[in-house]
């Protein structure tokens, strides 16, 4: 914004600085004339500056921190305009009362601006008054950016720079009207007055108005220096001295941390190496001494279904990390850091790099287990409940004004109660259920004894132990929970009411029908004592059920009864623990009224804080508000809901099911990558998981969302929770698929594309989630019921053994015993799902850049197998490998050659068949030269052998085009070589590919294949020249004349364009037609056109071959003027009339003939001054001509 | 428009579009229907009138469609819009001589056409700009036909007729949109004295060449 702002303000500043004031004798103190307002105003401003000059001169003791600034104040401010003015001037600034233009001043001071002004002043320096006050306070000019009034809006991310490192900072929207009143200067003064009970300081600047942003930024847990780019690294090396003490501090804090954290046994599914167990036991022993609990064995810290988490100690113990000096650690890139971290096999095993990670993660993640288990159970129970109650629902017709009896049944601290059954001795002691006694474990459930200490569900163990040191920690006991839950539901279903399952330990039951049966009414009429009998029956049902559950499970349940779900839920609050409460209609209003708003279901902190702003604290306060006001404050839905809730109204019926809206799979733990291949592979696995879930839910989705958690710029590389995600920036990206799908391949491809487009360096990834929205149910009885039909193709046979290979390979890679993990790792490549977008990773800082192989396939087998390695492999793998190699070795060599060539000539590669060999003429000699001798000979020999080319293709290609097509939808990792992937041509090809790369098209269009078919057909049939049509030989091109060459090239380009656009369902059918077309193109486009016969020549007049009307007129005029005094010659008249006759009959343009005649008439009329005879002669000629035209017309039948 | 796309069908549809507009204009200008029943519209960048009576529009569209069918067969010599007076005597005929449309067989109506001039250069078949300008000019003449014609007959009606080429097959198969009439054999005696022709314009844009004129019957008595 510099120059525009500076220019004028500099002038003003100079003027103000140069302004001196000695005495009141300048001309500005003279009176102004009548009507001389501008003069008056000019003088006024000078006088104001005089005043300022005086003030400035008097305050010589103040530092001139505002020197060089010109300020203007807009609107109400705290401190007031007058105070601020004085402050600014005293501290050396210039002040302008009347703003002639926005550029006059350097800064405009305002507390708030009207929306219009915000827009208007967007590009200027608008600062808060606090800037002045704080600057004076600190004694130097603070950067104004921290005090902006107008920012880029809440969506704009802000980069923070603190302590020389870059941090990410949330852009807080601070424009709230309370800001002025809460954090204002006057308020501050008042508060200070209260606190200190002292008089107001004479210097108002001593009070800070707002918190400086610097304090807000320092929220990270570790002050670990963060260096991200190489430039900063260089900078960091300069102030290495500064870093060292900091790192020591880190070490110290880490040591502290080590005391707190403990090591836990890894999951039983993966036996750790012996040394590790040793480690573990050591720490365990240490732990045991620390633990004061007598029955440690009873509280085994881990159960089978827990996530494989390691403590920070593992990281710190890790030799690899130890070996590296702390300063190097700091200067590594994220990938290097991860690589280092992962070089420890123990850690590696528990991160996403482990191919079995996903399985393990979902098998052992406690949270996942809890949620899925709950969901499964809930679904089961819901099904049972729905089945049971469907019959009753039929008879239960809701009448208007009918009384309802809804029970809300809930277990009292379900997990805790069930777990306690195994430890009856702790029944009355405070107990919690959690997965371990580590400070980081979360409390899943706590009993009422524990609640008395203030322990709550979801609390961290550390906090709970602070509140209640002797708290008992119980392990999870999922089988028992399940059993209890089943019994619980049995009891509920036995009530014969309409049951709606809320969760495993919670259910809603509509028992209205039962109660009405008791009273013998329909629920609307009121008989003598009928209502009372109904209520008694409801209580009775509840009591019976509670007794039954207690008998069956040994646990207490509480029951709330009310006229609707809301009332039942609220009644339950009162019923707990181990009781029941019926909210009778007459009590409802009073009962609800005295509750706090937060007690209402669906009301939490954010809603209640909004309500508090309009003066609502209790539910009865809501009733005093109008519905409109609530809607205005809370939005239409919540507002209306609360309005109804406050009156005890809840229209939701028991048994109404909420439809599932999305299915997702997300992993936020253990996400550490070294390179893109690992990311892609992991994404594939995650998408597989998503597919599994979609299938389980029986749905397909149309919108795919990718959620990526990226390490926040200021977060440490190793978050406090081991391998957790730490502080992250979350990025979301979604795509509309157009066609509902649950196909792993499709999803994976899109997800990888999205991931690429986010362009996040793999080392920074901390969590990835994929979510499918806009779900369509899969209709039963149809195989593939997408919204769009798809062609069915047979799956290629060759896939199966490859899959097996893949699995075995993966297994060997995941084998923890194997020391050299790198070797199998190298071989792993992206399996499939080339993104349809060509994504370039532009991150010069990452070392993975070289390794990045966006077009790679998963298992590129080495062309040269080390016999030693081969010998080490298990028998079956070796056999397969050997078989594969012998068959593929030759092609492999060529593939490599070819792909290299493609790399050098990306434009050409477009026309390439994935697996076909190029023409010999296309081989780049330089590349050929650079090849090793034997390979070169091999390549050239291949061209020499007559069947060579064909063989090469046949070996790789299934014979029929149909089979060929299946390649794209199935995985054939081996077939796709580096750079030779199915979508390679697309991915690498020109830009216009990108905009058509929607799902369907990518799916249907196998362009390179089609091309190949074409090529293939060409070579197998007679006309060999046609086979080359797609990929025109450059020599052939060169031989063509220039214009032909242009034409051929243009044709090719067009064909390419046509191919890349649109869904092509009948490639193999079209290929013939295309060939035909090609033929045309070669010969020229004439054949297809209907060449029109040449038109008969127009009749022309005179030797000048005139035919245009204007020319004719000219000729006629010239003719007339030439012979105006002697009359026309007969020949000329004849010639003209013959011509006009031709015009009418042959040219068929009467109007032209008529126009010529009319023009002649005109001429005669105009120049009628000549002698009678001549005039006569002309008129005769004219008549003659007219007559001829008439005759001509008659000839045409007019 | 790319030249290679121009087919005979497109050429014909250009003409029939024009014919539709022309019929509407004639109906308006000759007072066949109340002038208030016409909308002002814009075609060929020229203010034209369009009947807003759905039945009239339907009739015209049907008639033009029938004309188009015959045109595609290449049988038509002239298209005529005939205006009758109250006594169902034809008073005016608006004629469009389409005999100079390129001779294209019915099988080739969708084949792209091409024409080369004497120098071998390709000339456009349907120069759209030209066509529009020429149509505009024709339309302007047609809209001003009232200046050369006698006052419009009151209570008249109209029809559309085609005159076939000598070798043209009459469209008399079922369904039969056309009604055959006896040709007037002695052109000279029958017509000469009784009618007067007012040329409108000859359109020649690319291969879309036709001439239009108005024939007006002389006062019979």
TrEMBL record, chain A:
Domain of life where this protein originates: Eukaryota
Q: Which GO terms describe its molecular function?
A: damaged DNA binding; deoxycytidyl transferase activity; DNA-directed DNA polymerase activity; metal ion binding
Q: Which InterPro entries match?
A: BRCT_dom, BRCT_dom_sf, DNA/RNA_pol_sf, DNA_pol_Y-fam_lit_finger_sf, DNA_pol_Y-fam_little_finger, HUWE1/Rev1_UBM, IMS_HHH_1, REV1
Q: Map out region (Disordered) in residue numbers.
A: 196-218, 942-987
- Cofactor binding, note field: Binds 2 magnesium ions.
> What broad class of enzyme is this?
transferase
Q: Give the E.C. number(s).
A: 2.7.7.-
Naming one, the record's GO cellular component terms include: nucleus
Positions with biased composition (Polar residues): 198-212
Cofactor (UniProt)? Mg(2+)
What does this gene product do? Deoxycytidyl transferase involved in DNA repair. Transfers a dCMP residue from dCTP to the 3'-end of a DNA primer in a template-dependent reaction. May assist in the first step in the bypass of abasic lesions by the insertion of a nucleotide opposite the lesion. Required for normal induction of mutations by physical and chemical agents. Involved in mitochondrial DNA mutagenesis.
Entry protein name: DNA repair protein REV1
Q: Which gene encodes it?
A: REV1
UniProtKB/TrEMBL annotation, chain B:
Q: Which InterPro entries match?
A: HORMA_dom, HORMA_dom_sf, Mad2-like
Checking SUPFAM superfamilies in the record gives:
The spindle assembly checkpoint protein mad2 (SSF56019)
A Gene Ontology cellular-component term: zeta DNA polymerase complex
- Domain named HORMA: which ranges? 9-214
Top-rank lineage group of the source organism: Eukaryota
What PROSITE patterns has UniProt attached to this entry?
HORMA
- Family assignment? Belongs to the MAD2 family.
Q: What is this protein called?
A: HORMA domain-containing protein
Task: Specify the species.
Answer: Recurvomyces mirabilis
């Amino acid at each position: 914004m510099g120059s525009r702002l500076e220019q004028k303000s500099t002038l003003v500043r100079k003027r103000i600085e140069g302004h001196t004031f000695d005495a009141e004798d300048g001309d500005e103190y003279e009176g102004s004339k009548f009507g001389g307002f501008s003069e008056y105003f000019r003088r006024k401003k000078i006088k104001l500056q005089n005043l300022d000059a005086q003030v400035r001169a008097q305050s010589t003791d103040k530092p001139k921190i505002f020197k060089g600034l010109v300020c203007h104040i807009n609107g109400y401010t705290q401190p007031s305009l007058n105070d601020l003015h004085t402050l600014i001037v005293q501290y050396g600034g210039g002040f302008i009362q009347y703003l002639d233009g926005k550029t006059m001043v350097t800064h405009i001071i305002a507390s708030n601006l009207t929306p219009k002004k915000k827009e208007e002043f967007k590009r200027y320096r608008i600062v808060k008054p606090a800037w002045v006050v704080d600057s004076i306070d600190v004694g130097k000019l603070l950067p104004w950016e921290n005090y902006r009034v107008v920012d880029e809006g809440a969506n704009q991310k802000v980069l923070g720079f603190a302590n020389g490192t870059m941090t990410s900072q949330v852009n807080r929207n601070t424009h709230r009207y309370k800001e002025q009143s809460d954090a204002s200067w006057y308020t501050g003064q008042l508060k200070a007055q209260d606190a200190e009970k002292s008089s107001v300081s004479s210097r108002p600047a001593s009070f800070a108005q707002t918190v400086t942003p610097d304090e807000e930024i320092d929220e990270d847990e570790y002050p670990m220096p963060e260096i991200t780019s190489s430039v900063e690294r260089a900078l960091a090396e300069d102030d290495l001295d500064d870093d060292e003490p900091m790192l020591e501090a880190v070490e110290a804090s880490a040591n502290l941390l080590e005391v707190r954290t403990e090591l836990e046994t890894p999951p039983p599914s993966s036996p750790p190496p012996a040394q590790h167990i040793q480690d573990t036991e050591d720490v365990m022993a240490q732990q045991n001494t620390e633990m004061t609990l007598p029955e440690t064995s009873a509280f085994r810290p881990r159960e089978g279904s827990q996530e494989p988490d390691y403590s920070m100690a593992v990281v710190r113990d890790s030799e690899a990390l130890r070996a590296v000096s702390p300063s190097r650690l700091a200067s590594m890139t994220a990938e290097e850091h991860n690589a280092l971290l992962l070089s420890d096999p123990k850690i590696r095993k528990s991160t996403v790099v482990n191919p079995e990670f996903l399985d393990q993660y979902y098998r052992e993640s406690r949270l996942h287990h809890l949620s899925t288990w709950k969901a499964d159970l809930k679904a089961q129970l819901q099904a049972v409940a729905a089945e049971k109650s469907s019959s009753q629902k039929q008879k239960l017709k809701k009448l208007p004004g009918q009384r309802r009896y809804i029970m809300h049944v809930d277990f009292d601290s379900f997990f805790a109660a069930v777990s306690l059954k195994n430890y009856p001795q702790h029944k009355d002691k405070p107990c919690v259920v959690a997965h371990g006694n580590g400070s980081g474990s979360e409390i899943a459930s706590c009993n009422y004894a524990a609640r008395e200490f203030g322990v709550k569900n979801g609390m961290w163990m550390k906090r709970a132990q602070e509140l209640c040191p002797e708290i008992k920690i119980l392990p999870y006991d999922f089988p028992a929970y399940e059993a209890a839950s089943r019994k619980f539901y049995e009891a509920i279903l036995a009530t014969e009411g309409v049951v709606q399952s809320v969760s495993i330990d919670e259910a809603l039951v509509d028992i209205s029908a039962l109660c009405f049966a008791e009273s013998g009414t329909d629920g609307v009429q009121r008989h003598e004592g009928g209502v009372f009998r109904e209520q008694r029956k409801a209580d009775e049902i509840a009591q019976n059920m509670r007794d039954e559950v207690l008998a069956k499970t040994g646990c207490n349940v509480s029951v709330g009864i009310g006229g609707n779900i809301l009332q039942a839920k609220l009644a339950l609050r009162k019923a707990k623990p181990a009781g029941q409460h019926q909210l009778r209609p007459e009590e409802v209003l009073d009962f609800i009224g005295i509750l706090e708003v937060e007690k209402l279901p669906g009301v939490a902190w954010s809603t209640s804080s909004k309500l508090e702003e309009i003066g609502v604290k209790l539910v009865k306060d809501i009733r005093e508000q109008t519905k409109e006001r609530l809607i205005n404050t809370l939005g239409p839905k919540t507002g209306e809901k609360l309005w109804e809730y406050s009156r005890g109204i809840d229209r939701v019926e028991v048994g109404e099911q909420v439809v599932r809206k999305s299915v997702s799979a997300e992993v936020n733990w253990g996400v550490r990558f070294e390179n893109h291949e690992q990311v892609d592979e992991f994404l594939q696995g995650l998408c597989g998981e998503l597919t599994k879930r979609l299938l389980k839910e029986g749905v397909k989705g149309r919108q795919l969302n990718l959620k990526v958690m990226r390490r926040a710029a200021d977060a440490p590389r190793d978050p406090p929770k081991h391998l957790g995600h730490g502080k992250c920036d979350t990025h979301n990206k979604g795509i509309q698929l157009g066609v509902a799908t649950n196909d792993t391949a499709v999803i994976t491809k899109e997800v990888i594309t999205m991931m690429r487009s986010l362009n996040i360096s793999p080392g920074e990834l901390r969590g990835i989630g994929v979510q499918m929205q806009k779900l369509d149910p899969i209709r039963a009885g149809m195989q593939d019921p997408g919204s769009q039909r798809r062609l069915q193709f047979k799956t290629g046979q060759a896939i199966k053994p490859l899959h097996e290979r893949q699995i075995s390979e993966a297994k060997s890679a995941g084998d923890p015993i194997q020391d050299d993990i790198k070797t199998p790792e190298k071989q792993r490549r992206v399996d499939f799902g080339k993104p349809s977008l060509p994504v370039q990773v532009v991150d010069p800082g990452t070392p993975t850049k070289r390794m990045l192989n966006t077009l790679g396939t998963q298992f590129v087998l080495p062309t040269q197998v080390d016999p030693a390695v081969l010998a080490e492999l298990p028998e079956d793998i070796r056999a397969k490998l050997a078989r594969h190699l012998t068959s593929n070795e030759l092609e492999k060599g060529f593939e490599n050659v070819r792909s290299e060539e493609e790399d050098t000539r990306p434009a050409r590669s477009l026309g390439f068949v994935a697996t076909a060999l190029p023409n010999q003429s296309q081989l780049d000699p330089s590349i050929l030269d650079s090849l090793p001798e034997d390979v070169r000979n091999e390549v050239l020999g291949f061209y020499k052998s007559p069947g060579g080319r064909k063989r090469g293709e046949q070996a790789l290609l299934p014979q029929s085009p149909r089979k060929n097509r299946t390649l794209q939808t199935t995985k054939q990792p081996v077939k796709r070589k580096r750079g030779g992937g199915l979508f390679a041509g697309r991915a690498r090809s020109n830009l216009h590919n990108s905009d058509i790369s929607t799902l369907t098209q990518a799916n249907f269009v196998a362009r390179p294949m089609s091309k190949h078919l074409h090529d293939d057909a060409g070579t197998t049939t007679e006309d060999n020249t046609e086979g080359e049509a797609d990929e025109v030989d450059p020599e052939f091109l060169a031989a063509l004349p220039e214009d032909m060459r242009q034409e051929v090239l243009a044709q090719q380009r067009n064909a390419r364009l046509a191919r890349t656009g649109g869904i092509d369902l009948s490639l193999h059918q079209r290929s013939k037609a295309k060939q035909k077309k090609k033929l045309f193109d070669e010969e020229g486009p004439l054949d297809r056109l209907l060449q029109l016969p040449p038109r008969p020549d127009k009749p022309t007049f005179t030797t000048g071959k005139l035919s245009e009307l204007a020319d004719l007129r000219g000729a006629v005029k010239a003719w007339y003027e030439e012979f105006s005094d002697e009359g026309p010659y007969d020949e000329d008249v004849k010639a003209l009339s013959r011509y006009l006759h031709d015009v009418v009959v042959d040219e068929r343009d009467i109007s032209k003939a008529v126009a010529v005649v009319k023009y002649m008439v005109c001429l005669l009329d105009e120049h009628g001054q000549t002698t009678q005879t001549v005039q006569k002669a002309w008129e005769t000629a004219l008549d003659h001509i007219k007559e001829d035209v008439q005759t001509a017309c008659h000839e045409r039948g007019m | 428009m790319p030249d290679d796309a121009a087919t005979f069908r497109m050429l014909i549809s250009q003409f029939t579009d024009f014919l539709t507009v022309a019929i509407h204009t004639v109906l308006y200008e000759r007072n066949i229907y109340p002038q208030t029943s016409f909308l002002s519209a814009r075609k060929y960048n020229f203010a034209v009138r369009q009947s807003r009576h759905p039945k009239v529009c339907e009739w015209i569209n049907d008639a033009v469609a029938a004309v188009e069918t015959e045109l595609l067969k290449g049988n038509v010599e002239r298209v005529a819009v005939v205006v009758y007076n109250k006594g169902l005597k034809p008073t005016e005929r608006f004629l469009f001589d389409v005999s100079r449309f390129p001779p294209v067989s019915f099988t080739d109506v969708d084949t792209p056409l091409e024409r080369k001039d004497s120098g071998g250069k390709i000339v456009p078949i349907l120069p759209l700009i030209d066509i529009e300008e020429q149509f505009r000019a024709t339309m302007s003449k047609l809209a001003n036909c009232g200046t050369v014609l006698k006052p419009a007959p009151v209570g008249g009606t109209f029809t559309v007729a085609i005159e076939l080429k000598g070798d043209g097959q009459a469209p008399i198969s079922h369904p039969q949109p056309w009604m055959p009439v006896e040709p007037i054999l002695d052109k000279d005696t029958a017509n000469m004295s009784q009618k007067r022709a007012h040329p409108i314009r000859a359109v020649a844009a690319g291969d879309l060449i036709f001439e239009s004129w108005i024939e007006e019957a002389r006062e019979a008595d």
